[in-house]
Amino acid sequence: MTIKNFGVTKESAEKLETEDDLAVFRDKFYIPENTIYMNGNSLGLLPKKGEKTLLRVLEEWKTGGVQGWVNIEKPWFFFAEKLGEKAAFLVGAKSSEVIATGTTTINIHSLISTFYEPEGKKTKILADVLNFPTDIYALQSQVKLKGLNPEEHLVLVKSKDGRFLDEQTIVDAMTDEIAIILLPSALFRSGQLLDMKYLTEEAHKRGILIGWDCSHSVGVVPHYFDEWGVDFAVWCSYKYLNAGPGASAFLYINEKHFTKEAALSGWFGYVKEKQFELNLHFEQAKNAGGWQISSPSILGSAALEGALDLILEAGIDEIREKSLKMTSYMIFLVDELLSGEPYNFSIGTPREKERRGGHVALEHKEAYKIHEELLKKNVVHDFRPPNIVRITPSALYNTYTEIWEVISIIKSLFD
After folding, report:
1. CB-based burial of residue 168 (10 Å sphere; 0-12 exposed, 13-18 middle, 19+ buried)?
2. How far apart are CA 395 and CA 79, in angstroms?
3. What's the topology of domain 3-45+315-414?
4. Where do the domains of the chain lie?
């Protein structure tokens, strides 16, 4: 679908519906009544399959208690590994390299504490000023734990415009003082998708380990971690993976690092076959599971099973194709209907498809007021300071007509 096929009328949006192969998935979600829900990059909606697997786990607990760990059809003892196996298809990894565990920030602490080994000139971490702040807080903490000053040893790549990062600027910052890099796959405000393959290659040319926070891309963008040679990655599951608030996160470890000793160890990182021997000496599993710390959150992972099944059923390539079509359509409507006087909206998201994640950042000086008015009209989205109305059309449960309606509502606020 090229831009010449888009139109500004509701009939044009309805025509796009007839060409949508993923439209059948909308009925597989619970859609809030009388609501246009476009906030899936903050919290995805509940898939009915997720409800089903959650209720199954509750029933297992209710009827069997502790027996659920080993004496049921899908034992909880292996739950994190089974979820990792499903998620591995979305990120281009081997099943042994992905595990469902912890939370995003805890996993950042776990992996950075393992791979950040300041020595000689190489003492600095490279990150960026546009990353979600929790990542920066974790990195500051890790620098301090090494007895170093974050003001000197945490290098943040700057942005020229406050929207985007320039890959060449990032590469230029990969000096011989950099020990490790952590970057976001997609920027949480603008939705810019970084060139992970290129940046990983450039880091490795300089002997630098590189990891990625993919919370704003996994589930809406295909990844190829093994092919790209990514060292490690983390991501949450409650955004595009639709696993529910506070659901278990994921981490990825490239198998070339399986012999590395986890800096933060716990009993679920023990060799699986020997875990219940309860030895005092820690024997780390030689896979991503070796970086688990605590017992997995079974209830926090339960809906994730069904949610992943649904995404795999739809296909990540198909999801990406529709997502790009939906965001392209939204950008088209903004250009046609909201860019001139008296509306004066601008697009704060890359227009090139290969540089765009799953949401559109609408920029306006009165963004917060617009955000409040949209909420009053039951358009669920979010605001990001200082001037962004962030809207996310989900490929699995939103429609092109809803996109048209959102833009029409915004236009009516000014009209």
Report:
1. exposed
2. 27
3. Aspartate Aminotransferase, domain 1 (3.90.1150)
4. 3-45+315-414, 52-313
CA distances from 339 to 69, 154, 216 (A): 57, 39, 27
| CATH number of the domain located at residue range(s) 52-313 in this protein | 3.40.640.10
SS3 label, residue 175:
coil
Q: CA geometry: angle at 241 spanning 238 and 242, to 5°?
A: 60
- The residues, ordered by sequence, that sit 6+ positions from 207 with a Cβ below 8 Å of its Cβ are none
| Model pTM score | 0.96
Alpha-carbon torsion (333, 337, 338, 339), positive or negative? positive
Cα separation, 284 vs 290, in Å, equals 5
- Reported as a single tens digit per residue, the pLDDT across 314-339 is 999 999 999 999 999 999 999 999 99
Beta strands 388-391; 360-363: pairing state: antiparallel
Residues 240-262 have a mean pLDDT of 98
Predicted pLDDT at 5: 80
* Cβ pair 359, 392 in contact under 8 A: yes
Q: Please, which residues have CB within 8 angstroms of residue 276's CB and are 6 or more apart in sequence?
A: none
Average pLDDT, the chain: 97
The CA–CA distances, whole Å, from 163 to 4, 129, 365 equal 28, 10, 15
Which DSSP string do the residues of 254-312 spell out, in sequence order? -GGGTTSPPSS--GGGB-GGGGGG--SS--B-SSGGGG--S---HHHHHHHHHHHHHHH
Give the tens place of pLDDT for each residue, 104-149: 999 999 999 999 999 999 999 999 999 999 999 999 999 999 999 9
Written as six digits, the tokens of 388 are 């962004």
For residue 2, pLDDT over 90 is answered with no
List pLDDT tens digits, range 331-369: 999 999 999 999 999 999 999 999 999 999 999 999 999
Q: What is the pLDDT of residues 15-35, one digit of tens each?
A: 999 999 999 999 999 999 999
* Beta-carbon contacts of residue 52 (< 8 Å; ≥ 6 apart): 306
With contact defined as beta carbons under 8 Å apart, do 388 and 367 qualify?
yes
